[in-house]
Amino acid sequence: MSNSLIQLIVLAAIAVFLILRLRNVLGTRDGFEPTQVDERPAQRSMDVIEDDPRASDTDLTDHVDPDSPAYAALVEMKRAEPSFSLSEFLGGAKQAYEMILVAFEKGDLSDVRAFLAPEVATAFDSAIEGRKSSGQSADVQFLGTRETALAAAEFNPASAVAELSVRFVGEMIVAIRDADGNVVEGDAKTPRKQRDTWTFEREMGAADPNWRLVATGA
The pTM is what? Predict the structure, then answer.
């Protein structure tokens, strides 16, 4: 075998060795290495899931039909204020209902006036003054709220104002007494069910976290 042929074989072996070393160090686009083309659709899919609360938001689906107008309004509320929780709101609404209802029946709104819209406070004040002018008083015992459920939801994107209507069923003992202490309305011993639908309002994203009662109804 000639010297030139031997040198050619040696050089070829060195070249193969260097190629294999480079492949080990740098890798190739074969196997499990993701390409840029593969990553982009996956990222877009994740963005869509995270941007759509219906995909995993049980805070809403536990209380509202995902196909309802109320659900769509709640989704917009969460976009305006991501920290908003419907479950927490309903819990707070229940407490507000009990406090406001008892305050009204007792004729003293001082502790709950901050949670009342001006027109609601005026209507409550008028009813309370009417009772007082007749010499009436009330004995009130609140036994609990048996039902708290979302009835409706509306959201105005232009003003960021949200309105949530809540259906309550409460149970309480109320006895209205005249100036002589005689029961003229209600019963001092027998509980009664109180059914109400109240609407609360708030600007989403505002610094003030309190919702105000803006409407009452049966």
Answer: 0.71
- Two structure tokens written together for 100: 């406001």
- Whole-angstrom distance between the N-terminal and C-terminal Cα of the chain? 108
Contacts of 42 (CB under 8 A, 6+ apart): none
Per-residue pLDDT tens digits for 99-133: 999 899 889 999 999 999 999 999 999 999 998 89
Which residues lie below 8 Å from residue 73, measured CB to CB, with a gap of 6+?
153, 154, 155, 162
Q: Are 145 and 98 in contact (CB under 8 A)?
A: yes
Q: Is the pLDDT of residue 5 over 70?
A: no
Tell me the per-residue pLDDT of 47-67, one tens digit each, with 9 for 90 and over.
433 455 444 589 999 999 999
- Identify the pLDDT of residue 25: 34
**Could you identify the residue written with the tokens 């109240």?**
198
Length of the chain: 218
pLDDT value of residue 10: 44
What is the pLDDT at residue 214?
98
Handedness of CA 126, 130, 133, 138 (dihedral sign): negative
Predicted confidence (pLDDT) at residue 9 exceeds the cutoff of 60? no
